[in-house]
Design goal:
heterodimer; A: mainly alpha; Four Helix Bundle (Hemerythrin (Met), subunit A); globular; B: mainly alpha; 8 helices; about 85% helix
Chain lengths: ~220, ~220
């Protein structure tokens, strides 16, 4: 039980996020109105995706320094969970965009960047599946993972800042910048980020343990 | 030591390319045919080819040319020769030499492509030196990221498909910057307006070269 405190924390935080996110008082802003509550579900997906992909990259680096099955499996599972978060982020974002911008897809730089980012990680999955030999697959996909992450950083952080985005806080849209992000929003937003990320880590934990066990069974049979 | 190795490897690649001219001639013919196909598809209705389309089409041609040209930089080497290199030079030397060599190759192809394209489809560029600078940055950018990708893809089973799949998402940010920068040059806007794009491109190139330099030894070992 003592080792599992963070799982309890994840449950508590997510219950808090859903309940408080739906019921709490939110500031009234033009255009956004009640959809501002998506801040608790859409934005944490991206924070969670970046953090989880960072975990994947860290384990890829660890694999190159110390090639063990465990490092490889964790890097792979983390990349898959990162993709899941990315897809959820895009879906929640599109649903939200339909109500605020009028279109599911409006050629916004951040939307495009996230779509390209997902393509990179789909390519990672394709690359992995094209090797039959386990060690070679692990090493080469670790190299691509690090390379892709380095290419993803300018995509996600630099390019959207060079052009105007429709996203709140950019290009004169009402947003939740440092000065107008209401303290009641932060009260739910930070727990939401932590909660969703912990949930992602939990999924990685379960899936990679399962995968390692499965590989051990194959070895003994 | 590393510097001498790089020079020597570039010289080797140049000599090899010169001796087996079919590869280079093939690339030149490829560029020529693609431009001509574009001319035929647009030629009758040249009013369709407005400046943004002209620019985007040129960069798409360059993108596919570079993917094809650089894909062979590792696939073409046979096993015995790779083993021989493995025993005498450092992996860092090889990747840097390949990047520089591919940059030269791409620069040549890009300039020929630009000349032919401009000749066939008209040349609306107002600020030629700036446009050539964007071609240079494009050649450097494409060769840095594609060289590493081609070395990854060459290890896998069906490498030519994989090359395209792996490289396109990685290269898109660079391509967007290049298209914007060359559009500025086409319209003859003030050069200081392109400074943002220029610096971003240089920064992306730095990141990619550094990462390739660090990661290539791990690929090379297999």
């Amino acid at each position: 039980m003592r080792k599992n405190w963070w799982k309890l924390l994840a449950i508590v935080l997510l219950v808090f996020t859903v309940v408080a996110g739906m019921l709490s008082e939110v500031p009234r802003l033009a255009i956004l109105n009640e959809t501002i509550r998506n801040l608790y579900f859409h934005v944490p997906m991206w924070f969670g995706m970046i953090l989880i992909l960072l975990i994947s990259v860290v384990y890829s680096i660890k694999y190159l320094r110390n090639p063990t099955v465990k490092n490889d499996v964790i890097a792979y599972e983390a990349a898959k969970v990162g993709i899941l978060f990315g897809v959820l982020g895009i879906v929640t974002g599109m649903e939200w965009a339909k109500f605020t911008w009028g279109e599911y897809w409006s050629n916004d730089p951040k939307q495009n960047a996230s779509a390209i980012g997902l393509l990179i990680y789909f390519a990672y999955l394709v690359l992995r599946s094209s090797f039959s030999e386990q060690q070679q697959r692990a090493r080469i996909s670790a190299v691509y993972n690090i390379f892709a992450f380095a290419a993803l950083i300018p995509l996600l952080f630099i390019l959207p800042r060079l052009t105007d985005s429709l996203h709140p806080g950019n290009g004169g849209n009402p947003g939740f910048n440092t000065y107008d992000m209401d303290s009641s929003l932060r009260l739910v937003f930070y727990p939401a980020v932590l909660g969703w990320t912990l949930l992602g880590i939990w999924i990685i934990n379960v899936k990679s343990r399962l995968e390692i066990l499965r590989q051990r069974i194959y070895e003994t049979v | 030591m590393l510097f001498k190795e790089i020079l020597y490897l570039i010289q080797k690649d140049l000599v090899l390319e010169w001796r087996q001219k079919y590869a280079l001639n093939g690339m030149l013919l490829y560029v020529g045919s693609v431009v001509f196909v574009c001319y035929l598809s647009f030629g009758m209705r040249s009013n369709l080819l407005v400046a943004p389309v002209w620019n985007a089409l040129l960069w798409i041609i360059l993108l596919f040319t570079s993917v094809n040209a650089i894909a062979k930089s590792f696939m073409q080497e046979n096993r015995g020769r790779l083993l021989y290199f493995y025993s005498i030079v450092s992996p860092q030397g090889i990747i840097l030499a390949k990047i520089i060599y591919n940059t030269l190759l791409m620069l040549l192809l890009a300039i020929i492509c630009f000349l032919f394209y401009g000749f066939v489809l008209g040349n609306p560029v107002a600020d030629i030196p700036m446009f050539l600078l964007s071609l240079l940055l494009g050649a450097i950018g494409f060769s840095t990221s594609l060289t590493m990708i081609s070395s990854i893809a060459s290890k896998a089973a069906n490498s030519s498909t994989l090359m395209a799949v792996l490289s396109f998402p990685v290269i898109v940010p660079m391509l967007l910057m290049l298209i914007r920068m060359s559009k500025n040059a086409m319209d003859g806007l003030d050069r200081s307006l392109s400074l943002d794009e220029l610096l971003t491109l240089l920064a992306i190139n730095m990141i990619v070269v550094t990462v390739s330099y660090i990661l290539f030894p791990y690929l090379w070992r297999s």
